[in-house]
Design goal:
Distance between the termini: 44 Å
CATH architecture: Orthogonal Bundle
Radius of gyration: 17 Å
Strand order of the largest sheet: 2-5-4
CATH topology: Arc Repressor Mutant, subunit A
CATH superfamily: Winged helix-like DNA-binding domain superfamily/Winged helix DNA-binding domain
Number of helices: 4
Largest sheet: 3 strands, antiparallel
CATH class: Mainly Alpha
Number of domains: 1
Order of helices and strands: EHEHEHEEH
């Protein structure tokens, strides 16, 4: 059985934005499960970590929310990406791609490359 890792600090907001971008409006529990599912069940999303991130993103204007009924007819807050959130997602994705490329260079580096 695989052990799930916690989401790296600073990455959960980006994962939330991308999840909402791809899947459209979701409630918090749905967002958490989708992030875990997309990770191949390698990540664990703690609700005590997720909801403060959702609140922060909403206060920043990256997402908006409204009350609705979940699949099992329970009252739930549904979150959706805003125009500002799409712009934020695009900028953060570019930053992460650049960071990943830099880290990749370090893993490919050999001693002779650095002399």
């Amino acid at each position: 059985m695989k052990q799930k890792a916690d989401v790296l600090q600073g990455t959960l907001a980006l994962m939330v934005l991308k999840t909402l971008d791809v899947l459209g409006p979701l409630h918090g529990y749905g967002i958490a499960r989708r992030i875990e599912q997309i990770s191949g069940d390698l990540l664990a999303v703690n609700q005590g970590t997720l909801y403060p991130v959702l609140l922060k993103l909403e206060q920043e204007g990256a997402i908006a929310s409204e009350w609705g009924a979940s699949e099992n007819n329970r009252r739930a807050r549904f979150y959706r990406l805003t125009r500002a959130g799409r712009k934020q997602l695009q900028l953060e994705a570019q930053d992460w791609q650049q960071t990943a490329a830099i880290i990749g260079r370090f893993f490919r580096a050999k001693a002779e490359d650095l002399s």
